[in-house]
Amino acid sequence: MSFKKDLIKGIFQENPVFRLMLGLCPVLATSTSVQNALGMGSAVIFVLLCSNIIVSLVRNWVPAKIRIPIYISIIATFVTIVDLVMAGYLPDLHKSLGLFIPLIVVNCIILGRAEAFAGKNGVFRSILDALGMGIGFTLALTIIATFREILGNGTWMGVPLFGPSFEPVLLMILSPGAFITIGLLIGLLNWTDHARKIRHS
Amino acid sequence: MLREMLKYALILMCVTLAASGALGFVNQLTQPKIAAQKQLELQKGLSAVLPGTADGIIVPDEENAVYRGYANQDTSDFRGIAFSSFAKGYSSTIWTLVGLDSNGTVMKIRVLGQQETPGLGTKCMEIRSGESEPWWQAQFEGKFAPDLRVDKDGGEIVSITGATITSRAITNDIAARSGTIIEKLKMTE
Predict the structure, then answer these.
(1) Cβ(B170)–Cβ(B87) below 8 Å
(2) Do A84 and B26 touch (CB under 8 A)?
């Protein structure tokens, strides 16, 4: 039961983007297209998984006073590995994500999970936690990117959805579009939560 | 106190040593692949910016990474010259290949490397659906290179919405660099 909760909580109750409000900077920047969102999501899942595994393996040897520099070194190592592998094997995706791959190092979700979960729990639970949080992040990113790409560009996954008469709403692909989409989605989630609570009481 | 500090320094050193070892290993594995990708990209870029040289040859000039394109193997039919522009954009150095004909008119340009803001500056490489080349770069075709300016500076190049800095950087850098390249062309004639 508890294992299942470790996995599921990152996707729903503790979704990093919609609930914990972590890692919003890359969400704003890479949710311009669904392809970018999926690429960014996979990179984050990989880094989160590896860093959670290593952090939970070494948790008993890491002195509390220097845990942050150790965690950051571990995270930066895996981010650089993703960056190099992507440059070698997926050059197009690497080009379109650009600066945001190296910036995963300072993504709060990853350090946050190392600090709040992997540094205190065993390897198996840390893997579940990383998968849940990673999937939750990717899911949120993809939902936001779906709205932004369809409204702002008239395409989904690069496939045009409307005829040539469609005028894309440029605002949606620019940064304000990201703020508006995230704000409305969070508002909607809070509203349904609130409505459910009222019904229960 | 001192002992504790030494212990921490030693632990951190071990961590960073392990990290650099792992990175060195991955770097060794991926370096040839990345270099091959770069080379392939350069080749594709060169044949794109020097149209008409596909079956001919492209000869590198010694200095400044300038390439001369010929329509056939015996280098009699000169088609144009290609050079690299490195413009300082909004958040990165933008690497663009530019092909000029013998009059200094742009044949084609290709942006090969940039790390501009995704969704804004990256539009300089965007290919619209149903089209075969990036719309922004297509505007440069047929214009005299040293006179290139973006619309906000009174030129003909329409800048990308939300990415004037990127547009202006590429345009101005090509205009600035093309001067010496055209000198080079005149000298060989």
Answers:
(1) yes
(2) yes
Q: What rounded mean pLDDT belongs to chain A?
A: 90
Residue B25's closest chain A neighbor by CA? A81
Q: What is the pLDDT of residue B55?
A: 59
Q: Which residue of B has its CA nearest to A80?
A: B23
Residue B183 lies in a domain: yes
B68 in a structural domain: yes
Number of compact structural domains in chain B: 1
CB A24 within 8 A of CB A182: yes
| Nearest C-alpha neighbor of B95 from the set B38, B51, B140 | B38
Looking at the DSSP assignment, which residues form a beta bridge with residue B100? Answer: B81, B106
pLDDT tens figures, B41-76: 888 888 888 887 765 677 777 665 688 888 777 777
For B139-169, b where at least 16 C-beta lie within 10 A, e where not — what string? Answer: bbeebebeebebeeeebebebbebbbbbbbb
Q: Which residues of A touch B113 (CB under 8 A)?
A: 95
- Domain presence at residue B134: yes
State the Cα angle at A53 between A112 and B15, rounded to 5°.
85
User: What gap in Å lies between CA B56 and CA A153, rounded to an integer?
Assistant: 40
Preferred mutation among B10, B23, B96, B128 to probe A, highest tally of A CBs within 10 A: B23
Residue B64 lies in a domain: yes
Domain that holds residue B111: 45-188
Inter-residue contact B107 to B100 (CB < 8 Å): yes
CB atoms < 10 A from the CB of B89, how many?
A: 23
Interface test with A, best of B1, B5, B37 (most A CBs within 10 A): B37
Give percent of chain A above pLDDT 70.
100
Model ipTM over 0.85? no
Chain A nearest C-alpha distance from B66 (Å): 24
Domain ranges of chain A: 2-200
**Unique residue bearing structure tokens 């290609």:** B82
Q: Pick from B124, B97, B55: which is nearest to B181 by CA?
A: B97
Whether the per-residue pLDDT at A62 is higher than 80: the answer is yes
Residue predicted with more confidence, B171 or B41: B171
